[in-house]
Specification:
The complex is a heterodimer. Chain A is an alpha+beta fold. Helices cover 65% and strands 3% of the residues of chain B. Chain B has 13 helices and three strands, in the order αααβββαααααααααα. Chain B has a three-stranded antiparallel sheet with strand order 1-2-3. The model of chain B has no long low-confidence stretch (mean pLDDT 86). The chains are: A alpha+beta, B mainly alpha. Chains A and B meet through helix 1 and helix 2 of A and helix 6, helix 9, helix 10, helix 11 and helix 12 of B.
């Protein structure tokens, strides 16, 4: 194969030509790459820089510290407690099983806790700390810290959780917090992003729930740098949130504790209220429960016990319970008749022990009757016939109007759950509700607080406070939010003739302070603290004619849930009213025997600074009272303090 | 000019050869490799391990290899071209049957401590083979169909073997590398026109048969093309790599975030940050200035090779140098197009920057051949 020199030359030139072409093409392509680089890195740089920042920076919320709940003088009702827990981080641990076994020697761990930990560990990335145990004692935490070298990847941690140091005393008023549930989230239109934090606590009932907005505070944020798998590399900066506002209630924790203890294991409720400004001093409901159980997640057994208890510990009977007020309603009937002008103080009615209307016989509680009675004697002896009679003269609509004026059948707006409106029936109400005509018998029943009338202990306390003060006081539960006092505002006088009020007040005083009054036994002897009030006993069953003929069965022979409710309302001092009190003891029997003594103890506790002085009691009762006081399980009174340290 | 004429002209010999090495090219290679060490040090979070130090050792070994080959007369290399080609085809067959599987493809074979990817080696031996073929072939027969068919088969065999590995990127580079040598050798432009037309038709049919049992490419390769066309369709899956790479590159800006300050690579958002996507780390940390400098260095390397090719007097050296220069260019062009979102993601490393033994050795071998041609040029 021969090649001529000319061929070779020509070919070499061709190669050079084509090489130059290739070189040119490459330069052109490199220019394209350079241009693309310039476009991305110079012109579009800002866009990509932002994307890179978005990649690496995460914003995390810092939960705010929840506001405290304090009593009227600054004693702690709901605080934040350090929750000691132990977490384990798999990637730092090495041999997880060995470390867990060692940890179980140091602190008590149940097999369930270990199982849960292992499961959680399998699901999460190796760098995520997993809670092995929480609610540990300080000693356990210290033990873990001491054994740290033997426990790689195990770390003690401290979180904040709600704690109610007064246990059951405020279970109903303040309620409790719990972890956010899906139901909670569904209720909110624009949920705070904080609520998405696992185990974040929000108020479930009571003040905790209804003042959630004030208590929660605002979350802070921190910007953290994360890598591609979401692991936190470092914190870039943080913006602190605003802690929740402390809330100071009107309630006195010591009085509350006393009243709650005095109610004991009865199914009962009591309200003590300041008649001047409406401050609620004690709002007790028994039996109570430990709200701390709910914070940590209540066990099925504990919850079943609460639900199955026939004394209904979970119900807030003081505001939620609706009871026939019985004879405690008689002031309303009297004032309605007086204001209508259909009777005067002196108008007398003859009580033979019953009254007949339209062929039906309505009985007085006193079988033999009271004889001729006017207003004062009628209230003092709680004569039913007198009120049957005057209610006919006043008419149900006037009685209902008076009831509403005094705060019955009205929903009092307080930051508490399930506040009952009660029932203050009139003709329109019955038409609307039962599609039936109002009958005379209905008025007769209503006149002594039976039939359709239903009131809560709170409403009874408001009624009493209004009668005592002559002003339209409204109940108040919150004294201050943060540093801002909640103003009381102007309290308008009641639109009732003061002479009529005085007549009723005098009669209520006679009930207690004159021999023969139904609550004479529960009088206060101290001249400066004289008690005025009214007993009530409301039936929860119908007494048939045959039973009445053979003698009404005594309460203590009936099963518990068929017995009468015992009620009492009152105020003291009778001369210059300061506090009103209402007591309802479910199925307790007679108001004078059961409810009145509780009311007296409660109001004396509110008036006196400390245990009720024995000198205020009638001499014959002092030894009994002394024993009773000794046997009460009271919390050691704490000195009032404005110390708001967040423990 | 045939090799016989070398006897007449003066060819350097003995120790004097060292003086005639293309020292400028050596300097450029060291510069580019040094940028590679820096970047491997950076992506390891400021550590020589696990990448920078082995890469340095390989480069040092590569330099020795390059100088050694540079001393071998170019005509001896030409005579060995056929053997080298045959060996690399055998190796390709070997990985097909005994190779290790990585990333869903058969790619490498373990020979003692060396983990060899024959697909890289064949890029160079194919060019050598074709250059030797055209050096042997009577230039008048260059464009005759039968004599065009032979190099097409020479290209087709390794391309087919690589394609079934499957390694689309390397297959494309083999095609282009081979075509460039044929083009430089003077094969009639009509053939290239015809192939271009056929190629367009092939691409069209590629997509028409998609989803049928006769589809040519693997599903993942189709998906890569989809993702290339619109990375945002799958931001957390296949598109993730491309999007994160572009973010890294773009966010570098004019002057970069600073050495070891690249958030995208340091926080592991970047995929394959020490291999195929290492350029994005460079662009992120040194910005446009750094990235463009690297591009210029690559341009200079290619330029040096092409100049050397044109100054060569024999056909083998010329074609070989053009082929190697273009192959080198394809590495750079395909890799950069890929990370900048101009081409689909195919596994092509960035020469001297990407971590990897085979590519480094093969490239140094190629530059050794380039040096040999340079040294043994009659002056």
């Amino acid at each position: 194969m021969r090649r001529t020199a000319r061929d070779t030359e020509a070919n070499a030139r061709k190669v050079t030509r084509r090489a130059l072409f290739l070189g040119g093409a490459q330069v052109a392509f490199i220019a394209v790459l350079g241009a693309r680089m310039r476009y991305m890195q110079v012109e579009e740089a800002e866009k990509y820089r932002l994307l890179a920042e978005e990649n690496r920076i995460n914003i995390r919320l810092i939960p705010p510290t929840r506001g405290l709940i304090l009593d009227r003088s600054g004693r702690l009702i709901a605080g934040n407690e350090q929750n000691y827990r132990v977490v384990i981080t798999r990637e730092e641990t090495g041999d997880v099983e060995t470390v867990l076994a060692k940890l179980a020697d140091v602190i008590p761990l149940t097999p369930e806790m270990l199982d849960r930990t292992r499961k959680e560990m399998d699901r999460r990335s190796a760098f995520v700390p997993i809670v092995v145990a929480d609610w540990l004692r300080w000693e356990d935490l210290a033990a873990v810290a001491v054994n740290a070298p033997a426990l790689p990847g195990v770390n003690p941690e401290v979180g904040l959780s709600r704690r109610y140091p007064l246990v059951g005393d405020f279970a109903h008023v303040v309620g409790y917090v719990g972890p956010v549930s899906d139901a909670d989230l569904a209720e909110l239109e624009d949920p705070d992003p904080l609520l998405q934090i696992p185990k974040f606590q929000i108020g479930k009932i009571g003040v905790e729930r209804w003042m959630e907005a004030d208590l929660r505070g605002r979350s802070g944020t921190k910007r953290i740098e994360v890598n591609s798998v979401g692991r936190v590399m470092r914190e870039l900066d943080r913006q602190d949130g605003v802690a929740g506002a402390d809330i100071r209630l009107t309630i006195d924790a010591d009085v509350q504790n006393f009243v709650q203890a005095r109610l004991g294991e009865e199914s009962a409720a009591a309200v003590v209220m300041d008649v001047v400004n409406g401050d609620l001093i004690a709002v007790a409901s028994a039996p109570a429960f430990d709200p701390n159980l709910f914070v940590r997640g209540i066990s099925q057994a504990d919850y079943s016990a609460l639900i199955e208890n026939d004394h209904r510990p979970l119900a807030n009977k003081s505001v939620q319970g609706a009871y026939p007020p019985g004879s405690t309603f008689k002031m309303v009937t009297a004032l309605a008749a007086l204001e209508a002008g259909t009777i005067t103080e002196q108008t007398t009615v003859y009580c033979p022990g019953y009254l007949e209307f339209g062929g039906r016989r309505f009985h007085c509680w006193k079988h033999g009757g009271h004889g001729k009675v006017a207003l004062e004697r009628a209230l003092k002896g709680s004569c039913d016939v007198y009120f049957y009679d005057i209610s006919q003269r006043a008419g149900i609509d006037r009685i209902a109007e008076m009831g509403r004026k005094l705060g019955l059948g009205v929903r009092h707006d307080l930051p508490m759950s399930a506040i009952a409106e009660g029932v203050m029936p009139d003709k329109a109400w019955k038409q609307d509700r039962h599609k039936a005509e109002w009958r005379i018998g209905d008025t007769v029943n209503a006149s002594i607080g039976q039939g359709y009338v239903l009131t809560s202990p709170l409403q009874l306390a408001v009624m009493t406070a209004r009668i005592a003060s002559g002003k339209a006081v409204s109940p108040r539960l919150v004294r201050a939010i943060g540093d801002k006092e909640v103003p009381v505002g102007d309290i308008p006088p009641l639109d009732i003739d003061p002479r009529h009020l005085r007549a009723v007040q005098g009669a209520m005083s006679a009930v207690m302070n004159e021999p023969g009054g139904t609550a004479w036994a529960s009088r206060i002897e101290d001249e400066t603290m004289l008690f005025a009030g009214k007993t009530g006993t409301s039936q929860v069953r119908n007494i048939s004619a045959s039973e009445r003929a053979s003698g009404v069965i005594k309460n203590d022979q009936l099963p518990w849930n068929r017995r009468d409710h015992a009620l009492f309302v009152g105020y003291a001092p009778a001369t210059a009213p300061r506090y009103a009190v209402s007591v309802v003891v479910e199925h307790g029997g007679g108001g004078s025997a059961v409810a009145a003594p509780i009311a007296r103890d409660a109001i004396l506790r509110a008036l006196a600074d400390g245990l009720p002085p024995l000198s205020a009691y009638p001499a014959s009762q002092r030894t009994t009272i002394e024993t009773q006081q000794k046997n009460m399980k009271l919390r050691k009174p704490e000195p009032a303090s404005a110390d708001r340290s967040r423990a | 000019m045939s090799f016989l004429e070398y006897q007449i002209r003066t060819v350097p010999s003995g120790i004097r050869k060292v003086l005639y090495l293309n020292w400028g090219l050596v300097l450029l290679l060291v510069a580019v490799a040094s940028m590679g060490f820096l970047m491997l040090y950076s992506v390891a979070g400021g550590s020589l391990q696990p990448w920078a130090e082995p890469q340095m050792k390989r480069f040092a070994a590569g330099l020795v290899l390059m100088f050694a080959i540079a001393m071998v007369p170019i005509w001896f290399i030409r005579n060995m071209a056929g053997l080298a080609y045959a060996i690399s085809i055998l190796l390709l067959l070997a990985v097909e049957f005994f190779g290790e599987v990585g990333m869903g493809a058969q790619r490498w074979i373990d020979i003692g401590p060396l983990r060899l990817q024959p697909s890289e080696l064949v890029k160079i031996t194919l060019v050598m083979m074709l250059a030797a073929y055209y050096d042997w072939l009577d230039t008048r027969k260059t464009s005759r169909p039968l004599w065009v068919l032979i190099p097409v088969v020479l290209i087709g065999v390794p391309t087919a073997l690589v394609l079934i590995q499957p390694n689309l990127g390397t297959a494309l580079m083999l095609l282009m590398g081979g075509a460039v040598v044929m083009f430089a050798a003077g094969v009639s432009l009509w053939y290239f026109g015809a192939v271009a037309a056929l190629g367009a038709a092939a691409i069209a049919s590629l997509f028409t048969v998609r989803g049928t049992p006769w589809q040519f490419l693997h599903d993942y390769q189709y998906r890569r093309i989809d993702t290339f066309l619109d990375p945002t369709t799958d931001p957390l899956g296949a598109g993730y790599n491309i999007i994160q790479a572009q973010i890294a590159l773009g966010s570098g800006g004019w002057s970069g975030k600073g050495f070891m300050q690249g958030t995208q690579s340091r926080l592991n958002f970047l995929p394959e940050k020490h291999t195929d996507f290492i350029f994005t780390t460079l662009a992120e940390e040194f910005g446009f200035i750094g990235a463009f400098s690297l591009l210029l260095l690559y341009g200079l390397i290619i330029f040096f090779c092409l100049v050397s090719a044109m100054r060569s007097k024999d056909r083998f050296s010329q074609l070989l140098l053009i082929g190697i220069a273009c192959t080198f260019f394809f590495y750079v062009a395909v890799n950069l197009s890929m990370v900048m979102g101009l081409a689909p993601v195919v596994g092509v490393p960035l020469p001297f920057l990407s971590y990897g033994g085979s590519v480094m050795l093969v490239l140094m071998l190629a530059f050794g051949v380039v040096q040999s041609a340079h040294v043994h040029r009659p002056r």
